[in-house]
Amino acid sequence: MMVMILSLAAVGLAPSLGSGRNNSTGVPVDEDVAEASPTPEGLPTFESPQDTIDIGRGYTATITTDQGPIVLELDTANAPETANSFAFLAGQNYYDGQEFFWVIPGFDAQAGDPTCVDNEEFSCSGVGGPGYTLAKEGEGAPGGQWAVIAPVTVAGGDQVHGSQFVIAMSEDGDFEGTVIGLVSEGQEILQSLGERRPCFGTQTPDAGGCQAEDDLAQPLTIEDVVVQPA
After folding, report:
1. How far apart are the first and last CA of the chain?
2. Residue 2 predicted with pLDDT over 60
3. Cα dihedral across residues 167, 170, 176, 182: positive or negative
4. I need a surface site. Which of 44, 49, 71, 160 has the fewest CB within 10 A?
5. Residue 62: phi, psi to the nearest 5?
6. Taking the CA of residue 141 as centre, how many other CA atoms within 13 Å lie in the half-sphere pointing to its CB?
7. What residues pair up with 133 in beta bridges, in sequence order?
């Protein structure tokens, strides 16, 4: 089974899907380098997620990675549609083989882009998704450290990405989006990750504040995602 790219004007996430503030090591504010490659053909897409979970119940999601399991407690009360989408994609093996393509150590880690896979079938674009977006949910839902967030597709917007998610590793972040849930196990795996700020589209390491391929830390790879009742 299987179970964000912020505008470069937003600090701490990958280009064009969310925003984090108070991160001194985040992406430089420069709209001129925010161009991303188009999503390639041949990716699995869906018109919308099918109803997969009973939103009146609690669920956990176990993300098995090549470094061990990360367990999420899904917030079906405040984010029923987004949690259901996550579960639907998990059941489609959508996340299998995907990498945490963006990591600022101690601040955030981002995954869910189907172009960023361990078999290198596609060039990691940072903008890949399942073919749909979702309405932002859960205004006022608790965030903070270890929150799992579906980032907004455009800073200040009301739509969140259908598959990409950010895990906040610090209390200092302020991310726009829907809080899907909270990491309850596997925090040490996320804390051990090295920096990954890949260059997208026309970005270059010198002009874009991003890293060349050889400078990226080894990625954390998702092997399987299973969602089940808590």
Report:
1. 17
2. no
3. positive
4. 44
5. -100, 115
6. 23
7. 161
